[in-house]
Amino acid sequence: MRFLFFLTVIFSSIQLHSQSGAGYLEEVDPEGVGQTYIISPVETIGASGPDCVWDFSELTETGRTTSHLFRLTDRDMATHFPKSNMLIQEGDLTVFLKVTPSMVYEYGYTSGMMTVAYDEPIVRFPLPFEYGSTIEGRYSGKRYASQVRTIQGHYHTEVDGRGTLILPDDTVIEDAIRLRFTKTLDNNLTDEVTYRWYSADHAPIMRYPLLTVFTRNTRGVEEVLRAAYYKHASEFSIQEEPYRESEGTIPANYTSVNAEAYELKVSPNPFTDVAVIEYFLPETSKVRIQVFDNSGRLLETLVEGEEPEGRHTAELHSRGDFIYYVRFTVEDRILASRKVFSVSAE
After folding, report:
1. Quick one: how far is CA 158 from the chain centroid?
2. Between β-strands 243-244 and 221-230, what pairing exists: parallel, antiparallel or unpaired?
3. For domain 238-342, is the CATH number 2.70.98.10?
4. Backbone phi, then psi, for 307, in 5-degree steps?
């Protein structure tokens, strides 16, 4: 099962032009550089629909994996994959792709002594894709191991959700989409189902899955297996410079490059009754923590004044189902603005 798990992780570092044309690939990995994913246990896949909040802030690291994307220049490596033009490598696993301005096809993979080659490839996703996009079809090919075996089945890809994705380290991506990929094998009762989350608002289109959750579905019963999230997912919500309070409207989810030293954390998020705001002051500082509503109206000031060096906490109490914005200011510099969700207890 190990190679199947990583096979679903590594469809990651493809960065494509949003326009048509021959120059479909902007960037591949330099030697020794790749994308690192943090592996974690997980219990849920979250909801589907147009206004989701996917809270994966409590994921914990149990391992890491790194994948690399390369142009396919050595044709000796592609004996079984003559139509492929790209490959992804992760350890002893190599996946062969054909990348065009409008599609990403999988033509098969090698892992150790085993090779799987598709004569009818799997369409991983059309480009671009957005909430509501769907594609499906049949695939077929051969599996070469101790013996040659014919394989065939069905695949289905659907962007089934759009909303806010919350990852560890207070990483909040407000405009995210979720892609659900299902692969079935004829005469097999268990389907592979993989969920991937992407940032929806980047152009040219970035195919970095910020989070991947792996499941399997047997006779209609879905079992959640594990997750892998992009180590640098926070880059999708980090701004370049800290704001001053005099600069007017602050982005709803803002993190200054100087904020790391303050170890700001709001948990749980979403919350029902009380959310705890934790932070560290490297030195005695003037601190202000304010809570705003969705329209920018100030609701309350939780902390205001000089505080000593060390760790501190403040509490945000729920006012019912609501979206709050918690602003953290030190010495008149706004270091972070967090979107915090309050939900009713089930």
Report:
1. 16
2. unpaired
3. no
4. -130, 150
Kindly report, residue by residue over 67-110, the tens digit of the pLDDT: 777 777 655 566 788 888 888 888 788 899 888 767 788 999 99
**Do residues 24 and 99 touch, judged by C-beta distance below 8 A?**
yes
Cβ neighbors of 9 (< 8 A, separation 6 or more) are 37, 65, 67, 90, 212, 228
Q: List the chain domain ranges.
A: 2-233, 238-342
User: Amino acid identity of 202?
Assistant: H
What is the pLDDT, as a whole number, of residue 299?
A: 86
Alpha-helix runs per DSSP H in the chain: 2-9
For residues 225 and 214, the answer to whether their CB atoms sit within 8 Å is: yes
Q: Which residues are CB-neighbours of 237 under 8 A, at least 6 positions away?
A: 171, 172, 173, 174, 253, 254, 255
Tell me the pairing of strands 148-167 and 49-55. Answer: parallel
Torsions phi, psi for 203 (to 5 deg)? -140, 135
Q: How many CB atoms lie within 10 A of CB 130?
A: 9
CA dihedral 252, 253, 254, 259 (to 10 degrees): 130
Full DSSP string of 182-232: EEEETT-SEEEEEEEEEESS-SSPEE--SEEEEEEEETTEEEEEEEEEETT
Q: Is the peptide bond before 204 cis (omega within 30 degrees of 0)?
A: yes
pLDDT digits (tens, 9 = 90+) for 124-164: 877 667 788 899 999 999 999 889 999 999 999 999 998 88
CB 200 within 8 A of CB 179: no
Task: Tell me the CA distances in angstroms from 97 to 33, 75, 196, 230, one per residue in order.
Answer: 19, 13, 18, 21
Tell me the mean pLDDT in the region 202-218.
72
Residue 208: band (very low, low, confident or very high) from pLDDT cuts 50, 70, 90: low
What strand order describes the sheet that includes 265-267? 265-267, 274-281, 310-317
The residues pairing with 307 across neighbouring beta strands, listed in sequence order, are: 285
